[in-house]
Design goal:
CATH architecture of the largest domain: 2-Layer Sandwich
Radius of gyration: 24 Å
Order of helices and strands: EHEEHHEHEEHEHEHHHHEHEEHEEH
Low-confidence stretches: none
Shape: globular
Number of helices: 13
CATH superfamily of the largest domain: Reverse transcriptase/Diguanylate cyclase domain
Structural class: alpha+beta
Length: 416
Amino acid sequence: MIALVDCNNFYASCERVFNPKIDKKPVIVLSNNDGCVIARSNEAKTLGVKMGHPAFKLKNLIEEYNINVFSTNFALYGDLSKRVMNVMNTEVEKMEIYSIDEAFLDFTDYASKERGVAIREKVKKWTGIPVSVGIAQTKVLAKVAVHIAKKHTKAGVFMFDDENLIRRALNVFAVEDLWGVGAKTAQKLKAVGIHTALQFRECDSNWVNRNLSVNGVRLQKELFGEVCYPVELTRKRKQNICTARSFGSEIKKLSKLKEAIGSYANTCATKLRKEKSCCTTVSVFLSTNPFKPQAKQYTPYKVIQLNLPTNDSMEIVKFAIKGLESIYRNDCIYKKAGVIVGRTVPQGQTQLSLFDSLDRGKRKNINIAVDKVNSLMGKNKIHLAVEGNGRMWKLKQERLSPCYTTRFAEILEVRM
DNA sequence: TCTGGGGTCCTAGGACCC
DNA sequence: TCTGGGGTCCTAGGACCC
C-alpha cells in the first residue's frame, strides 16, 4: 500500500506558520512579478479567487474582503518543505518526494488509517503545516483518496481498503480530476460519453490504447489496483535545468538582455554543480509580451551543442550570450527570457578532449570557491561582470514576507 | 500599467543506414 | 501498368504534472 501525503494549500499555509494573525483569514500567494494567483487558502477559494487569475483583476475583491496578499517566498517554502519531508521520514523509511508539497510513502509493511492520522498530527505539531493523507494500492488511487480526504473527511485521512468502496468513489469522481488526465484527454473522453473515473476504468482497453496510448493504459490499470508507477526510492538526476523569468519591465536593448541571460546562465551552472552534473547543450529563448497582440510577436529559441560537457559558469555564460546574439532582433520589445542547460551527464564521467584549450582544473577550483562564498555570504555575493549591477530586469515583489527560517536578520522576534 | 516557473515523458516524422 | 523492406537515431512539439 502507498500513502500520498499532500500539504493543504501549501504556500498559503507556509505564510501562516509564522504569522498567526492571518489564520482563518483569506490568504493568496502571487507568482513571480506579483503576476497571478498560484496559491489560495480555503477562505480565498470560497470568495471565488481562481487559480492563475491575474492579480490586477482582483484589486476590488482584495480590498473588499481584506484578502492577505503575498509575493512568492521560495526560500521560506523550500525550507518548510524540507522540514515536512524530514518529519515524515522519521515515521516511514521508504518514501518518494514527488513535489515541493507531496510525498508518496511506502506503507507496504503496515497500512492503516490510524498510521495516516498519526503522521498528519506529527507533521502539524512539528512544522505547523496541515496535510491530507490518501492511502491505496497504487499512486493513481492514492491521488483519488487524498482528493476525498481533503474534501469529504474531518480527519483529513482516507483509505481505500475494499473494492466496493473504490467502485462507489470512482462512480462519483469526475474523469478530468484523475491524475494524468488533462484538458485534452478529458475532452476526448467526454466526446465518447466517459464522464466518471469508473466509466473510464471499465471502458474497452483497446480503445484506450489506440486513443490515449500507453499512459492511458497505465492509468486504467492503476485504477484496478495494478501498480504501473512504483514508488521511486532513488532521486533521478535532472535531464534539463531551466532558469527563466519575466521581466519587471520590458527590455529592448541587447546590453540589458545580456545581463539577464548571463545571470540566468550562471544560475543554471550553479544548479548543475549542485546536482553534480554537466550539460552538453545550452539553449536560450526570448519572448515578447503575448498579452500585447498589437505589438510585434517574436519567440526565438536557439540550441547550442557543446563539444565537451561542462558545468563551468564562465563557459556556459559564454555560450548563452553567443546564442542570445544569434537570435536577438532590435525591432522587438522583450518581456521574458530564459536559459536551459540540457542533456546532462554525471560529473566525473565526462569524455575529455585532446584538443581542449581550457585549464579545467583551474576553472573547477574557481567555481568551488565561488559556490562556497555565495553559500556562506549570500546569493550572488560573487557574480560575473556580464551580469551587471543595475538589475533593471529584476522581479517585482512588493508583498514579500520575511525569510523566517533561512536569514538571521529576519528571524521572528517574541516580546515577553 | 498589470498575466509564473520548472520539470517529465511520449509520439510522429525526418534523415539516415543496408 | 508496375518503384522494397527493415532498421536506428534524433528532434520538435504535444500533453501532462506541481
